[in-house]
């Protein structure tokens, strides 16, 4: 009986000791893990966090620099547009044409005899093109426009009253006035940017240069545009226009 009791007590002591060893091991393991976590936190604070902050600062600086550059470009573009608008308001709708590239249009006009004056017959795939060709036909009668180079650009904005004939009359008259007041500017190409039938308004650009007698052949000067026998035929495909000019 005593031997059995001794064995039970001995077994209990072994279990208690095993529990204590296990508990000590777990406590030690937890402590090691805690120290490892503390070490990683310290390392993150001393090494990783400054690096993260540095990279974040660099990204922020790059973003701010890009935004500043975009703002400067937008401001420069706005200033450029404002200056161009002021130049147009002050000096009229003319500008340099150094960067404009295009093919010169086909000739779609001819001259018909009409007593002492000359009649220009122009045609095109649209009425706008016929108007453009009529202006180029007028300039071609005054000089050989094949020798005119693309050195300058003039822009006009005209409005008419009544009908398309008045619009054609004012369109040609305005270009003739540009020739007389803008150092004898001759357009080799005319391009209509706005053709408003309802408002009877045209905005157009002419590409060419100043007439120079040393380089350009002198033809017959057109003095004025007339309404005499003016005709506009909108039937496709030619959209013919006829206008008599005073020479």
What does this structure look like?
The protein is an alpha+beta fold and 247 residues long. The chain folds into two domains: 33-77; 109-246, Archease domain (Archease, Possible Chaperone, Chain: A, domain 1, 3-Layer(bab) Sandwich). The chain contains three helices and nine strands; from the N terminus they run αβββαβαβββββ. Strands 2, 3, 7, 8 and 9 form a five-stranded antiparallel β-sheet that branches. It has a four-stranded antiparallel β-sheet with strand order 1-4-6-5. A hairpin with a 4-residue loop joins strand 5 and strand 6. It is rod-shaped and about 140 Å long. The chain starts with a helix and ends with a strand. Residues 92-96 have low confidence and may be disordered. Residues 109-247 form the Archease domain. Pfam families: Archease. Belongs to the archease family.
Instruction: Report the CATH topology name of the largest domain.
Output: Archease, Possible Chaperone, Chain: A, domain 1
CATH homologous superfamily of the largest domain?
Archease domain
Shape: rod-shaped
Distance between the termini: 150 Å
Question: Mind telling me the CATH class of the largest domain?
Answer: Alpha Beta
Count of discrete alpha- or pi-helical segments spanning 4 or more residues: 3
Main pleated sheet: 5 strands, antiparallel
Rg (CA only): 44 Å
Could you name the ranges where pLDDT drops below 50 across 5 or more consecutive residues? Answer: 92-96
């Amino acid at each position: 009986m005593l031997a059995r009791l001794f064995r039970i007590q001995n077994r209990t002591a072994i279990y208690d000791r095993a529990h204590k060893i296990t508990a000590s091991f777990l406590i030690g393991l937890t402590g090691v893990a805690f120290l490892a976590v503390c070490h990683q936190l310290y390392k993150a604070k001393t090494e990783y966090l400054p690096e993260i902050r540095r990279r974040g600062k660099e990204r922020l600086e790059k973003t701010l620099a890009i935004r500043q550059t975009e703002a400067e470009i937008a401001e420069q573009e706005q200033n450029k547009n404002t200056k161009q608008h002021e130049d147009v308001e002050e000096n009229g709708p003319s500008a340099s044409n150094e960067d404009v590239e295009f093919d010169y249009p086909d000739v779609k006009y001819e001259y018909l005899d009409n007593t002492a004056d000359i009649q220009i017959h122009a045609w095109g795939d649209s009425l706008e093109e016929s108007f453009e060709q009529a202006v180029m036909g007028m300039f071609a009668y005054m000089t050989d426009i094949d020798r005119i180079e693309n050195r300058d650009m003039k822009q006009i904005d005209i409005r008419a009253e009544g009908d398309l004939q008045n619009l054609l009359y004012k369109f040609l008259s305005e270009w003739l006035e540009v020739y007389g007041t803008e150092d004898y500017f001759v357009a080799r190409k005319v391009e209509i940017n706005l053709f408003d039938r309802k408002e009877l308004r045209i905005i157009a650009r002419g590409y060419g240069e100043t007439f120079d007698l040393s380089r350009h052949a002198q033809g017959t000067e057109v003095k004025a545009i007339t309404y005499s026998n003016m005709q506009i035929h909108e039937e496709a495909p030619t959209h013919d226009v006829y206008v008599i000019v005073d020479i």
